[in-house]
Write a structure and sequence with these properties.
Blueprint lengths: L1 H27 L7 H44 L3 H16 L5 E2 L3 E2 L3 H20 L4
Length: 137
């Protein structure tokens, strides 16, 4: 899965920039014959963005669920009277503290909720650069 996400990031960035640039160019042109491919370009760019952002969003949801489990364990440890159960709860909390819920893609990009925003901001930056170097209309 890690190599799949990494491949999507490296291939998806130029693909998304290209499709968004072509959609902008077709939308700003006066020729209405070229408006039909605009939807195709927009759909392909959106498809790539969703494929890149979905694992980060799902991982963030799982991380929030782990935090909820941790808070439930802490509240149960305060009211627990059984020594064996209390020991197991403490062992689980120690494990969760020493092994936090973190994942990185190829040890370069942390997989969290900020990854989609970083990807979109990088795409917008390159689209602005492409628009400045070429004339859209």
């Amino acid at each position: 899965m890690e190599s799949w996400i990494c491949l999507l990031l490296f291939v998806g960035l130029p693909k998304t920039v290209m499709f968004t640039y072509k959609a902008m160019k077709a939308a700003l042109s006066k020729d209405y014959v070229t408006l039909n491919p605009t939807y195709i370009y927009f759909y392909n760019g959106l498809n790539t963005v969703v494929l890149i952002c979905l694992p980060a969003i799902l991982f963030e949801l799982i991380s929030n669920e782990v935090d909820n489990i941790r808070s439930i364990l802490i509240s149960n440890s305060l009211v627990c009277s059984d020594e064996v159960l209390l020991l197991e709860i403490q062992r689980t909390l120690d494990y969760m503290r020493f092994r936090p819920m973190k994942y990185s893609i190829c040890r370069m990009f942390p997989l969290n909720a900020s990854l989609p925003l970083k990807f979109v901001s990088l795409c917008v930056t390159y689209i602005i650069v492409c628009a400045q170097f070429t004339s859209l209309v």
